[in-house]
Specification:
This protein has 111 residues and is mostly helical. It has 4 helices and no strands. It has helices at residues 13-39, 45-63, 65-77, 85-109. Residues 10-72 form the DUF202 domain.
Amino acid sequence: MSGEQAGHRDPGLQPERTTLAWVRTAVGLAAVAFLCLRYVPGSSVMVQVIGTWTIVVASAVVVTARSRNERVAERFEAGRTVYPFLQLLVLTVTVAGLAGASAIIILVVGR
């Protein structure tokens, strides 16, 4: 290994798996949001806002997946780690909002 760079044998593989996991998460979020918008009784403004926000966030994750994968692969190959704090924060808030809205709807409709 004298002339080779010590590192990962396939620097694109891990970022690609991570990107696929992000896409699966986004598709799952969008599916839950569509189901929520379709089957929750009544037309609550809160349900529509949370559902629409979730679909927008999921769409943004899917649309930016390829470019994000390329950036992460380049940085991974260079030996730098990338932490998408803003993206994680937005997804966390979205999932928490969806869960909170679901809990409130269940409590209100269940009475």
